[in-house]
Structures are given as C-alpha cells and as structure tokens.
Amino acid sequence: MCEANAYVYDENGKEVLYLENVDEIKPEEGKLYLKNLFGEQKLYDGEIKEISLIKHKILLGKKT
User: Fold this and answer.
1) Which domain holds residue 45?
2) Helix or strand or coil: residue 30?
3) Which has the closest alpha carbon to 46: 20, 19, 28?
C-alpha cells in the first residue's frame, strides 16, 4: 500500500493527525486537496512541509 497519514502542527507545535490513509493530494485554488482510501476529503490551506515515504507520513504546515 502507498497511502500515508497527514499531520499538522497544533498551537503547541505538536504533530496532530489531520487525515489518515491519504492516497491523493492535489493543489487546488492555492490549497491542498486530500482524499483518502475511504473517500473522505479535506481541503487544507497550507503547504507540504515534509513527506517520508518510509514512515508513510505527510507533514503539512502554514504557508511561508
């Protein structure tokens, strides 16, 4: 399987799960469209900070 979990930082700088089993990310109107294996969809107003394929992890953050 090639899906990964997406995380964002909370107000304390701790990583928090945003969407699990993400298998699709697309830029859309200046935001990131995420969709997972179960059809759940989210639109995140930020950017990709890091992707670890080995850890199946996507780290999202505020635009700089």
Assistant:
1) 4-61
2) coil
3) 28
CATH number at residue 55: 2.30.30.240
Residue 48: both structure tokens together: 């990709």
Helix (H) or strand (E) holding 63: none
What six digits make up the tokens of 12?
A: 């304390």
* CB 23 within 8 Å of CB 37: yes
Measured at the CA of 63, the angle between CA 61 and CA 64, to 5 degrees, comes to: 115
Q: What is the pLDDT of residues 5-55, one digit of tens each?
A: 999 999 999 999 999 999 999 999 999 999 999 999 999 999 999 999 999
pLDDT surpassing 90 at residue 2:
no
CA distance linking residue 5 with residue 7, whole number of Å: 7
